[in-house]
Amino acid sequence: MFEGDPTATAPMTPIASPPPVRRSGGIPAGRLIALGLLAFALAALSGRVDLSAIVSAARSYVDQAAPATRTNTSSTETAAVAAVKDVVTRANQAQAQAYTRNDPTVMRATATDSYYQELVQTNQSLQQSGVQSIALVGLDWVDATVSGTTAHAVTNETWRTTYSDGSVADSTDRNEYTLVLQSGAWKISADVQPTTRVITPGTGTGTTPTVTQPGTPASVTSSSSNWSGYAASGGTFTSVTATWTVPTVSATSPGADATWVGIGGLQSRDLLQAGTQAMVDGSGVAYTAWIEMLPQSSRDVPLSVTAGDSVTVTITQQSGNDWLIAMKNNSTGGTYNVTVQYSSSNSSAEWVQEAPSVGRGLISLDQFGTLQFNAASAVRDGKAMSLAALGAKAITMINGQGQAIAQPSTIGSDGSSFTVARTDATSTPQSGGRRRRP
Residues 266, 283: contact at Cβ < 8 Å? Predict the structure, then answer.
């Protein structure tokens, strides 16, 4: 499936299969020598030695004795790979058809139950964000492998998204599929776009937008199509925490924002995160709390939040793959705690305001005003450290024109606070971003 990214690389060339292994089909050298001697002796007795006849006879014998060339290609494996590719192709077609017909059931045949539910919610989110239609316009195969009842396929896919305002966006992304064999049929159980969280150094090239930033704007050292805030790397991270005030979002136009802390994901494919979100649709603004463990989909949790609430979120590694996610609404006293199993790279920590994404691109960033982060810190290599002590780097969110749409401030004098301010630059729904559904 597709998640666009304006900085996506060009489609990769499919990996060529190695040439078949050929086995020698000749006869032993000793037998050839014996054959030659016998032919020579017979010729001597007759008084004539015809070398050309001897050579011709030897060649004839070798041709008759040589078995057919063999290869190590497995027809069964080839058929399985072809079946996997067929499922991925049909799944993409089915999602586009499901969206056009408003009938999600056509996606069921190529997806596991859990992945099917994810696709259903993805299409619903697309409708809420003003997407009129989606269409697959290009698919290049990178690789496909089968191991028992599990298969993996990698593609570069180009999708075209048409929005209700008439705008059209084309984007190309690398997709890494996991499939499982169920009752004799291959079904997709997961689809990850590893390039969607890439943060590129440098500044935007568009016109500088207007921003009311209560703090000093941070220098634009890294930019992202959907992240704004701070990230730290270099070491082993076992805990991250922060407190923020849920921003009051304008309900004048559709959009969304997600505020979170996380472990991993800066330069790796794993990401464990938890936070709050605002979603603006025709009925108003809905505020929720959620957790997510990539590549699994996000899920809402039973912690009520609303604009103006102070929320603290902490993610801590207990032991091995056990992680405690603790969330507290400081304004109401409500809490949510859960221990989850997750294999993390422990490679980074993040404090982020995000434009959430769905299966076909980003949702417009809403007008959230200014977001305040406080008490932001992490445990790196066993030591609790503030943002400043961690050397965390600022990330600015930019739109397709290179304009900043969400800008972090410099870190406060306490070493642990900063703000993220929404600029007046347009945030048109675009491609790129993680697969976090609103």
Answer: no
Burial per residue of 285-317, b for 16 or more beta-carbon CB atoms within 10 angstroms, e otherwise: bebbbbbbbbbebbeeeebebbeebbbbbbbbb
Per the domain annotation, does 271 fall within a domain?
yes
Q: For 123-176, what is each residue's pLDDT tens digit?
A: 776 776 667 888 999 999 999 999 999 999 999 888 887 877 676 777 777 888
CA–CA separation, 432 vs 129, rounded Å?
15
pLDDT of 350: 97
The verdict on 87 and 150 lying in the same domain is yes
DSSP, residue by residue, 220-245: -SEEESSEEEEEEESS-EEEEEEEEE
396: helix, strand or coil: strand
Q: What are phi and psi of 242, to 5 degrees?
A: -170, 160
Question: Looking at this protein, which amino acid is placed at residue 343?
Answer: S
Local structure of residue 102 (DSSP, 8 states): T
Query: Per-residue DSSP letters for 312-380?
Result: EEEEEEEETTEEEEEEEETTT--EEEEEEE------EEEEEEE--EETTEEPPB----EEEEEEEEEEE
The number of folded domains in the chain is: 3
Range of the domain at 59: 29-65
Q: What is the pTM of this model?
A: 0.63
**CA-based radius of gyration for the chain:** 30
